Amino acid sequence: MAVASISRNIPKGDRLFVLLNSLPNYGIGRVFTRTTWAHKYPNEPSYIRITSVTFNPERWPELNGGEVWGIPTWRGYSRDGLQVKISSWFKSEWKVIRKSEEEEFCAYTPKEEDFHAVPNSIPLPPLLRTMTKEKMEKEGNVTEEKLNLKLTINRTYVNRAYQQIPEL
Fold first, then answer.
1. For 6-20, 49-63, 66-80, which range has the lowest pLDDT when averaged over its residues?
2. What's the whole-model pTM score?
3. Are residues 72 and 133 in the same domain?
4. Would you state the pLDDT for residue 159?
5. Do 43 and 100 reside in the same domain of the chain?
6. pLDDT of the residue at 90
7. Domain housing 147
8. 4 assigned to some structural domain
9. Residue 84 pLDDT level (bands cut at 50, 70, 90)
């Protein structure tokens, strides 16, 4: 009886802290990507530009743990001023982009129509609206603004939605 072997696509690369330890200034300012991102989206670059590295003092001799912060670009889209803590630093699929290739790798203009505008609020469901209106009438302060449900969009680098900031 023959046993079928299961071949897995094991990502090739190193852990992020291994790469950071091998670079001057611990890789701050350099561009890193994951091999899974390159396989899933070959025509849309996803990468993180490292802004800050803090090592865990409990792992002192190896320097293989801590916190890494960076400015992400996901499938060509980046959020201005958004820095994230990299939570997958321990995965063995990180690659550093050579300085000579950084400009070409990062030069990608995404389509504008991939973003979706999300309203700041939506009307409450009918039953909840009626209950809220009755409660507010008893208290004596009825306003249409309070009968809407406020929406908040998480500002993550994977989210392709944005929200208009209301004018004051």
1. 6-20
2. 0.61
3. no
4. 63
5. yes
6. 78
7. 115-163
8. no
9. confident
Which residue in the block uniquely carries the two structure tokens 């091999």? 35
* Residue 26 backbone zone (phi > 0: left; psi -120 to 50: alpha; other: beta): left
Helix, strand and coil content of the chain, in percent to the nearest 5, comes to: 30, 25, 45
Name the phi and psi angles at 2, rounded to 5.
Answer: -90, 140
Q: Which amino acid is at 65?
A: G
Closest CA to 70 of 97, 42, 36, 109: 97
Number of domains the chain is built from: 2
Asked whether residue 48 falls in the same domain as residue 103, the answer is yes
Higher pLDDT, 75 or 118: 75
CA 24 to chain centre: 26
Tell me, yes or no, whether 134 and 55 share the same domain: no
Token digits for 122?
């939506």
Do 29 and 79 fall into the same domain? Answer: yes
